[in-house]
Amino acid sequence: MTIIVTGGAGFIGSNFIFHMLKKYPGYRIVCLDKLTYAGNLSTLKGVMDNPNFRFVKLDICDREGVYKLFEEEHPDIVVNFAAESHVDRSIEDPSIFLQTNIIGTSVLMDACRKYGIKRYHQVSTDEVYGDLPLDRPDLFFTEETPLHTSSPYSSSKASADLLVLAYHRTYGLPVTISRCSNNYGPYHFPEKLIPLMIINALADKLLPVYGTGENVRDWLYVEDHCKAIDLIIHKGREGEVYNVGGHNEMRNIDIVKLICKQLDKPESLITFVADRKGHDMRYAIDPTKIHNELGWLPETKFADGIKKTIQWYLDNKDWWQEIISGDYQNYYKRMYGDRK
Ligand code: NAD
Ligand code: TDX
Questions:
Q1: Is the per-residue pLDDT at 271 higher than 90?
Q2: How far apart are CA 78 and CA 256, in angstroms?
Q3: Cα 82 to chain center, whole Å?
Q4: 138: exposed, middle or buried (C-beta count within 10 Å: 0-12, 13-18, 19+)?
Q5: Which of 85, 106, 157 for mutating ligand 1's site (highest number of atoms within 8 Å of CB)?
Q6: Phi/psi at 31 (nearest 5 deg)?
Q7: DSSP designation for 100
Q8: pLDDT tens-digit series, residues 217-265
Q9: pTM value?
Q10: Which listed ligand is nearest to 224 at the C-alpha?
Q11: Distance (Å, rounded) from C-alpha 262 to C-alpha 301?
């Protein structure tokens, strides 16, 4: 079995590679990654010498390069994690999101059609459903919830999902899609809420909470997401969408206060800044389908997962210090410099 994992030098893709290499010693895993600002080879250093692993630096939009890799590797399965993934960056400049997230997806699927494949899996997001109101805790996203996007990021992911389903219906491509809620855990890039707050708190820097901090996200430990994808690519039904989430809704402000408490830092570091444009209020996944069909259930409770995650950032300062010492500083100034 050969699996091409795109975007495997990023947060979730790398965790997926670790999970697969450990669980399936007979599988060959080929990581295809462009190494954008969000991709880090140092993340993969523990598997680089594994004879069942190959890393290829490549853009999923590079049709010639992608076709050549398929000719070399004859993959059985492709799992597409490669994407521009940060909502704030998509608000700054949507263009690369359209290129990678939509065009890149179509190039990968064209290669799958040309060379044949057992399964193409698209890693999508709950953000394609838009948001839910705070005063309707009874509402959840199901696979039937209409796509209703807010940001250029989520619109590009929804466009890709529609293309994936179109390739299934039109060409019979054996596809599956997973739509997961917010992940957290090791190797999460420091631009995202949880790692940003941990790293800022450790340096006694201000903790910038957008708007009132009442927005709700549904957090899932990254390993649980990886296990869900593992199940879907092996047992999921072709042409189907599976929502992934653990019923763990939390307000941003409560997450940030919890991080302060765990790190023994004062809540006075918290500062409310200008809201994100078009900021989604609440995400909440109904995971009944993946539970009933594939037996998936989340294993890590948030209280344990957040402790493990904070400990990981304490134990792996080299990993994130290298990242925040580079171009990240310019990003931070642009995004937070005079955000009042
Ligand atoms: P990430 O930003 O940490 O990693 C993305 C990876 O893709 C990086 O290694 C980057 O170098 C690579 N990449 C970007 N453009 C590429 C291109 N053109 N060609 C090849 N490689 C390219 O993202 P993440 O948080 O790990 O998210 C992975 C996937 O999961 C994304 O598709 C995202 O939409 C989805 N998702 C993320 C979350 C979350 O909470 N992080 C939740 C649900 C779904
Ligand atoms: O500095 C911050 N302050 C703040 O209040 C940052 C970076 C974020 N926030 C808020 C915005 C959101 O309500 O925290 C919440 C989480 O923000 P992000 O970490 O940027 O995640 P989100 O926008 O929810 O999107 C994430 O989950 C769905 C991933 O980045 C996406 O790739 C995934 O599809």
A1: yes
A2: 36
A3: 9
A4: exposed
A5: 85
A6: -95, 125
A7: I
A8: 999 999 999 999 999 999 999 999 999 999 999 999 999 999 999 999 9
A9: 0.98
A10: 1
A11: 16
Domains and CATH numbers, the chain: 2-187+220-247+282-303 (3.40.50.720)
Residue type, 228: A
Cα(78)–Cα(142) distance, integer angstroms: 25
Taking the CA of 226 as reference, the closest ligand is 1
Residue 188 in tokens: 């999460």
In angstroms, how far is the first alpha carbon of the chain from the final one? 52
Instruction: Give the DSSP letter string of 287-337.
Output: -HHHHHHH-----S-HHHHHHHHHHHHHHTHHHHHHHHTTTHHHHHHHHHT
Q: Write out pLDDT tens, residues 57-98.
A: 999 999 999 999 999 999 999 999 999 999 999 999 999 999
* 67 close to 58: Cβ distance less than 8 angstroms: no
Burial 88-124 (b: 16+ CB within 10 A, else e): bbbbeebeebbebbbbbbbbbbbbbeeeebebbbbbb
- Whole-number average pLDDT of the chain: 98
Residue with token string 């990581």: 31
Q: How many helices (H) and strands (E) does the chain have?
A: 13, 13
Residue with tokens 């295809």: 32
From 79, 21, 75, 81, select the one nearest 53 (Cα to Cα).
21
Query: Is 254 a residue of the active site?
Result: no
Please write the tens of the pLDDT for every residue from 16-58: 999 999 999 999 999 999 999 999 999 999 999 999 999 999 9
173-226 tens-digit pLDDT: 999 999 999 999 999 999 999 999 999 999 999 999 999 999 999 999 999 999
Q: How far is the CA of 86 from the centre of ligand 1 (A)?
A: 9
